[in-house]
Write a structure and sequence with these properties.
With 1224 residues, this protein is of the alpha+beta class. Among the domains are: 1-27 and 907-965 and 1042-1087, no CATH class; 49-436, 6 Propeller (Neuraminidase), CATH 2.120.10; 470-534, no CATH class; 742-836; 1089-1223, Jelly Rolls, CATH 2.60.120.260. The strands form eleven sheets. A five-stranded mixed beta sheet has the order 10-11-14-15-19, with no helix packed on it. A hairpin with a 5-residue loop joins strand 2 (67-72) and strand 3. The longest helix is centred in the middle third of the chain and has 14 residues, at 520-533. Mean pLDDT is 84; it is low at 1-27, 243-255, 441-457, 608-613, 953-957 and 1070-1087.
């Protein structure tokens, strides 16, 4: 028995782990490639592609090394960024770094001595045989360069903290001048820097950026406070309209002027997007890491994010990805929507996405869903079958084929490189082309030259259409013709040449293409070029808006209206009722822009031809609402709301009158708008706006579901602090509380309590004290009551601060007492701080430490031995040791001892704990007890825990080395959004946690244990970012045996299969063992094909342990095909499950076919919204396949979550077989 050891360990330390990237190289699941790097020929021989395709190598080391970004120029030459300084950057002076003085062109600096090693090279295929044979270094001395794009007589380079432009006036492949175009790009996480430059259809330069790098993008010379927050998503930049780039025509680089640029965040969110592209209709897509891997990024969209919060707090929801499937692991880079004209037609419009961990390129199918898309897997287009293949960019080349840039490194992850920067394989790099000779492919005609196959080989060998390709030499007539080319690379390059040459006299020919029967992509190219050349020439665009039936052309007529002021308001009226949702989306986006705000923030943008910032609704909003939306489309409703949001608060009366009139007949879309409108009025923090909100709810009171959504918005809108209406509202509350709709009654009761209705408060207190009520309901009631800071509520809270109260309710009551304040709570909280219940005790100690007067009472009680000092929560100890009051700090030192927040010798401590983990056998059962009591108060893990820190599944626990650094030195790298923030309130509280909501009206903190604290802005005295992790230092204070048990449980929990000797060896790879051992063969514990499991039925989410080779998809079992095999979790309590959320359309029955192992049985439970509706034992008696049917009709019209659980029935052969889940 080790129970005393556990108690001592928990007494030593109570903390939550922060597993943001800690910088140790990953092994185990993320083991670096163990074979030597194959030669290019060997690598090519290993690759597999579909029949009819072939991989060719365009360039390889030593001609190219460490390639991280690529682009082409007008001659079809490949420009590559070689990133030698990744991941740490150079210590040598960076000639193109430092603070930017201005945004003008300057001569290249004179340099001497050692320089940063990143550089830009040009690769040429001079004989056009498909292989590079000439390498030119264009510029050196770059530091952490990460992006490149040809344009404006030179190249644009992303090198933190700047977006640079190097100009080559004499075209000798040497820069003649350089400038800082924009600055403020961060470098906190060097694998999430600005990346993936491309010219958008609208003429802007687009880029992506990761979530854990913090940027404030601005023009040189502007203060950082004026910069745009950019920490996840797509940004875009362009020269300010009306200012021509005089620097492009000057021969004196040093003296030439340069136009200032503007920047905005085009779409906000995701994680670490690395790769963006747009389809033939101009829709943008990005690939992302860790979270879902693929997103459609609509202009102005606010999307889910891995961490942090969007700059705009008023979207009130975050848009999802467009995938329901997953591929192997989580690192994606590079995306291309294929439009090259060379592959068979059935590939056109498909997404090709690079997977670094899987060493593959995935091909995925895009299908429109309303104004957005869904993405489904088609096949692995390329599988390298070798661990060195690291695709970081996939693009369509001048030849119409896909080109793949291969970083070529044994390391699969950023953490590997951070742990051992010198281990990065800087001598390798490859550029691959995937060609096809299939019939049905289209060999594109050359641009203004002869159409015969180029010299040097067939068109499949050649890297460009003609040997003498040079679009810059083409006449404007030929460039316009090239807009109709079947290869989108040629079309885009021709458009760029026309724009850069300010081609005059092309309006008529461009309009002819736009109005012709040419393919839609060509017509769009003409429209985009017209708009870029002359933003005020809207003749062709206006004609399209009125006359052309194609939705893509109509959508861009609307989009360009918002971009620069083309189409008149009357034309937008026509488009607003167009039956195609993509057109209505474009109208919504334009409408927001015409209200003089940026796409994703409410900051003012320059007005070109706006409608003026009208405070009231227009005919456009009415038509958009009446047109409705697809039930599966969340993008269009959000866009409509974002068009209204900037002006709603200033014209609330007009907007609510309009909405009350139209909402009843435009449901369900109007429910979304009503809910968000109520929240937006609450966020104004103006009581008179609450009067308008109540008046609105009274007007729609006959429509129960609509009213319920509006009242829910009022409730949620006051989480940051209660705002009471000015006028008397008791009559309205009484009517709502008597509604036949349960949701209306519930929300009305909550509002009545928050607004101080004495009778409602009394009723809620009675519910709070009613032990027959569900605990969850009582906690919800308590959370509503605590917003009412009255003596009645304080008195009602007291009976819950006793040892007889259940743990969850007691913790909620303690937190409510801390929020309400009052000396009457001190004695019961001191009593609770002596509780034997770990969670209750910690909550009481945390509550007492939140208020200065209470804190001194707590410390005095410890000094008097009324409260034990053992097991004191580490976050509280840290807060007391750094308290602003010296008397508190001194008293804490006296009664609790010294607190060391960081180690003088962290490496030594890590080495010591390594040895402890490598000697002796861990007790995983004891480790789990410790884990549950400590780590799970902050982290989710196998279905339990809290969301304070990152989910530990797959986060920094892939090997012993990585885990040790994460837990012993958590401050090494702190992810954006996971910093420890302290808030001091005006009523004397001190709160700490990570910010999960940050709005003009309130801040929401999430603390250990999942406790959420919403603090109104007007109650905040100070807010401080400690620049430290939520997890305190000190984990190394655990006794070695306890430390070993806990660490090995985190590394190898039984839920993921047994800790075999092979598995243990894999997990300690990278640790310096006395003798090196050969790499063991792969074992069953990580051989699960999760992709096939997740795709067995993509509508159902699978939750199951890695146990005895399950889960697995079987071809056949007892006469049925396509069978899924699962097993309950090894703790014998947790079931495997299948889960799905959907709307019950009408009379619906769920049919499930299940079977058992020949030697066992198991228990099937069917739950709807967490309530059990069916239960059956599935045994191996005949019939072998059992059909279970559940009638779901009672939930008609509702969104429900169905969960099918496979429970153990005893513990013998509990394998669950599934086939054919249907809804009929």
């Amino acid at each position: 028995m080790k129970k005393p050891l556990i108690l001592r360990a928990l007494a030593t330390l109570s903390l939550c782990l922060n597993f943001t990237a800690a910088g140790k190289e990953l092994t185990g699941t993320y083991l670096p490639s163990t074979n030597t790097c194959p030669t290019p020929d060997e690598a090519r021989g290993k690759m597999s592609v579909p029949d009819g395709y072939e991989v060719r190598c365009f360039a390889h080391e030593p001609m190219v090394q460490n390639p991280v970004a690529m682009t082409w120029d007008h001659r079809g030459r490949l420009w590559v960024v070689e990133a030698y300084e990744y991941p740490n950057g150079s210590e040598h002076p960076a000639p193109f770094g430092g603070e930017a003085r201005d945004d003008q062109y300057h001569p290249l600096p004179k340099t001497s001595g050692a320089l940063p090693r990143d550089r830009v090279i040009v690769l040429e295929d001079t004989d056009n045989d498909g292989s590079a044979d000439k390498r030119t270094v264009f510029v050196e001395g770059l530091n952490l360069a990460s992006a490149i794009l040809c344009g404006d007589n030179g190249i644009y380079v992303g090198q933190q903290p700047h977006l640079l432009h190097f100009r080559d006036d004499d075209q000798d492949d040497k820069p003649d001048a350089w400038r800082v175009v924009l600055t403020g790009f961060g470098r906190e996480d060097t694998h999430e820097l600005l990346n993936s430059f491309c010219w958008g259809p609208d003429g802007w330069l687009y880029m992506t950026h990761g979530v854990f790098t913090h940027s404030k993008v601005r023009r040189p010379g502007q203060p950082g406070s004026e910069g745009f927050k950019f920490d996840a998503g797509i940004g875009r930049a362009r020269p300010l309209r009306g200012v021509q780039s005089s620097g492009l025509k000057s021969s004196n680089a040093a003296e030439s002027g340069a136009p200032p640029w503007e920047f905005e965040v085009f779409a906000d969110g995701t994680s670490n997007p690395w790769g963006c592209d747009y389809d033939a209709a101009g829709n943008f897509f990005v690939s992302a890491c860790v979270i879902d891997h693929f997103f459609h990024m609509a202009p102005g969209g606010i999307y889910v994010r891995q961490g942090g919060a969007p700059e705009n707090p008023y979207a009130y929801e975050q848009l999802p990805s467009i995938v329901k499937h997953k591929h192997f692991r989580a690192a994606y880079a590079g995306v291309q929507i294929y439009q090259g004209g060379r592959y068979p037609a059935d590939t056109h419009g498909h997404a090709f996405i690079g997977n670094i961990h899987d060493n593959a390129i995935h091909e995925e199918i895009l299908t429109p869903v309303g104004a957005t898309f869904k993405c489904e897997p088609r096949r692995d287009f390329l599988r390298a079958n070798d661990g060195w293949f690291r695709p970081v960019s996939t693009q369509t080349g001048p030849d119409g084929f896909l080109w793949i840039m291969d970083w070529c490194d044994k390391y699969p992850c950023y953490q590997n490189a951070k742990a051992n920067p010198e281990g990065v394989d800087r001598q390798y790099g490859r550029i691959w082309r995937v060609i096809t000779t299939q019939s049905g492919s289209v060999v594109p005609a050359s641009a203004g030259s002869d159409t015969a196959p180029p010299k040097g080989g067939t068109t499949e060998h050649a890297s460009r259409p003609t040997n003498d390709l040079d679009l810059k030499k083409l006449s404007t007539t030929d460039l316009v013709k090239t807009l109709e080319h079947p290869n989108n690379w040629m079309r885009r390059m021709a458009r760029r040449m026309l724009i850069e040459q300010h081609a005059e006299g092309t309006q008529e020919s461009l309009q002819q293409i736009a109005k012709s029967d040419a393919p839609v992509p060509a017509r769009l190219e003409a429209i985009w070029t017209l708009s870029a050349l002359n933003p005020q020439d809207y003749r062709a665009i206006g004609w399209l808006a009125k006359n052309d039936p194609n939705p893509a052309l109509k959508a861009w007529a609307a989009r360009l209206s918002g971009e620069g002021g083309h189409v008149g308001h009357d034309r937008l009226d026509e488009l607003a009722e167009n039956p195609d949702p993509s057109v209505r989306l474009a109208v919504s986006i334009a409408l927001r822009q015409k209200r003089e705000v940026h796409l994703t923030s409410d900051r003012a943008r320059p007005s070109l031809d706006s409608m003026g910032r009208s405070n009231g609704p227009t005919i456009l909003e009415t038509k958009l609402l009446k047109a409705g939306v697809d039930p599966d489309d969340k993008v269009l409703p959000t866009a409509i709301w974002m068009a209204i949001e900037p002006v709603l608060a200033d014209g609330a009366k007009q907007w609510l009158d309009w909405l009350a009139d139209i909402a009843p007949t435009t449901q369900p879309l109007s429910r979304v708008l009503s809910h968000k409108a109520m929240r937006r009025l609450c966020d104004t923090r103006k009581a008179e706006n609450l009067d308008l909100a109540v008046e609105f709810c009274d007007k729609i009171a006959e429509h129960d579901i609509l009213l319920a959504h509006a009242l829910d918005g009022l409730v949620k809108g006051q989480e940051g602090g209660v705002i009471k209406p000015v006028k008397e509202v008791s009559a309205s509350l009484a009517e709502w509380r008597s509604s036949s709709n349960a949701d209306v009654r519930k929300h009305a009761q909550t509002l009545a309590v928050m607004w101080g209705d004495a009778a409602a408060v009394k009723e809620m207190i009675a519910v709070l004290h009613d032990g027959s009520k569900p605990e969850k309901e009582r906690i919800t009631v308590l959370q509503s009551l605590q917003k009412v800071r009255t003596d009645a509520v304080r008195d009602g809270l007291m009976p819950l601060l006793t040892s007889q109260t259940s743990t969850a309710l007691a913790v909620a009551a303690i937190r409510a007492a801390a929020d309400l304040g009052g000396d009457e709570f001190i004695v019961p909280l001191l009593q609770q701080s002596a509780s034997k219940d770990f969670n209750v005790r910690n909550a009481a100690i945390e509550a007492l430490s939140n208020r200065e007067a209470w804190t001194k009472t707590l410390l005095n009680a410890i000094a008097e031995q009324k409260v034990s000092a053992s097991g004191f929560p580490a976050p509280v100890r840290r807060a007391l040791a750094t308290h602003k009051d010296k008397a508190v700090r001194d008293l804490a030192y006296e009664v609790l001892g010294a607190w060391q927040d960081s180690s003088e010798d962290v490496k030594s401590l890590i080495a010591q704990k390594k040895q402890a983990c490598l000697t002796g056998e861990p007790d995983l059962a004891n480790g789990k007890l410790m884990f549950t009591a400590t780590c799970m108060v902050c982290h989710e893990f196998h279905g339990g825990g809290q969301k304070v820190g990152p989910d530990l599944i797959g986060s920094g626990r892939s090997n012993l080395d990585a885990l040790l650094t994460n837990v012993i030195d958590p401050n090494q790298i702190i992810g954006n959004g996971y910093e420890n923030i302290t808030v001091s309130t005006k009523d004397g509280r001190t709160l700490a946690g990570r910010i999960v909501e940050d709005t003009p009206g309130h801040v929401k903190l999430l603390a250990a244990g999942g406790a959420a604290q919403v603090v109104p802005r007007d109650q905040i005295a100070s807010l401080t970012n400690t620049k430290q992790s939520l997890m305190p230092m000190g984990f190394g204070n655990l006794p070695d045996p306890a430390f070993r048990d806990l660490v090995w449980y985190i590394l190898a929990p039984p839920e993921e299969g047994p800790l075999t000797s092979e598995k243990k060896k894999l997990l300690i790879q990278g640790v310096e063992l006395p003798e090196a051992s050969p790499q063991p063969a792969r074992t069953n514990w990580r051989a699960i094909d999760w992709e096939s499991v997740s795709l067995w039925n993509p509508d159902w989410k699978v939750t199951a342990p890695d146990f005895e080779r399950t889960p697995v998809k079987l071809a056949e079992y007892h006469g049925k095909t396509n069978v899924l095999l699962l097993h309950p979790f090894p703790d014998k309590k947790t079931p495997a499950s299948l889960e799905r959320t959907f709307k019950v359309a009408g009379k619906t029955r769920l049919h499930v076919h299940v079977a058992s192992d020949d030697r066992g049985d198991w228990q099937l439970k069917v739950l709807v919204n967490s309530s059990r509706v069916s239960e059956v034992i599935v045994d191996h008696e005949k019939p072998r396949w059992k059909e279970v049917e559940v009638d779901l009709t009672k939930w008609k019209g509702q969104d429900i979550t169905v969960r099918l659980e496979a429970h153990a029935n005893g513990w013998a052969w509990e394998f669950a077989y599934w086939q054919g889940i249907t809804l009929e």
